[in-house]
Specification:
This protein has two helices and eleven strands; from the N terminus they run αβββββββαββββ. The protein has a ten-stranded antiparallel beta barrel with strand order 1-2-3-4-5-6-7-9-10-11.
Length: 248
């Protein structure tokens, strides 16, 4: 039923939309006391697709979606173990624009529903070597775009931030194996409610859009800071990237 309602909402939107493809490279910082008491750091890369669709009858109201795939290969400080990591995130929702709040500046406010699916593998662990990440959230989002001219071209400087306000996440207890969970069915408070008090996180993106012939080049910086305190564990997943891409 929810999928059908979502499909009908998409069909009600116009066919034209602004789609942005972005590719990023940077550093990841991963910490999960279920796997190890040590920080793991290393290179990461990601790809993302962002779409903005204005409503037919009111162009100030837009449907927004963003899907990102992160891949990282981190190691501890002693270089004795590694943690390959992947994370797939999806956010979608509605935002409203206020035009010319300041000269040549638009502001957007709205709400997003998001979901994370990922996992981390520790090469040093013989018991409990992997940790899954599964979470869903409702976030407030804010954005601003400033337009200015340079050499007869109109450039756009944009900023966007999202702050999760409420959600749910999966987490094992400390020392609880996935064999106990899924084979023996020993569930023990493994689905938890999240909020800024126990899972304060923040997503930010700065971009500069430069018209180049038929397409628009996009360059910028992005940070995704996720952290949580589930079941007496400590987790964080920090990603900072230089991004480059284009608007279609």
């Amino acid at each position: 039923m929810y999928a059908l309602v979502f499909l009908l909402l998409l069909l009600a939107l116009p066919a034209h939309a602004q789609t942005t493809w972005l590719f990023g490279v940077g550093r990841a910082n991963i910490y999960d006391t279920y796997l190890s008491p040590a920080n793991y750091k290393g290179p990461q890369m990601h790809m993302e697709v962002a779409t903005l669709r204005p409503l037919k009858r009111n162009e100030k109201l837009c449907f927004e979606s963003n899907t990102r795939l992160h891949l990282a290969y981190t190691e501890n400080r002693a270089q004795t173990a590694h943690e390959p990591d992947f994370l797939l995130t999806t956010d979608l929702g509605w935002t409203r624009a206020w035009r010319e709040v300041l000269p040549h500046t638009d502001v957007r406010l709205g709400g997003l529903w998001g979901m994370d699916l990922g996992g981390t593998y520790n090469t040093q662990n013989g018991n409990n070597p992997a940790q899954a990440r599964l979470a869903t959230r409702l976030s407030a989002t804010v954005g601003a775009t400033c337009r200015f001219s340079l050499r007869q071209r109109t450039l756009r400087l944009s900023y966007q931030a999202s702050l999760p306000l409420a959600g749910m996440m999966f987490s094992p207890q400390y020392g609880q194996s996935y064999y106990n969970l899924f084979h023996q069915g020993h569930w023990n408070h493994n689905l938890l409610a999240t909020h800024p008090g126990n899972a304060l996180s923040l997503f930010q993106r700065f971009t500069l859009s430069i018209p180049c012939r038929r397409r628009t080049l996009v360059v910028g910086y992005e940070s995704m800071l996720q952290q949580a305190l589930p079941n007496h564990l400590r987790q964080h997943h920090y990603v900072r990237s230089f991004i480059i891409g284009w608007h279609l």
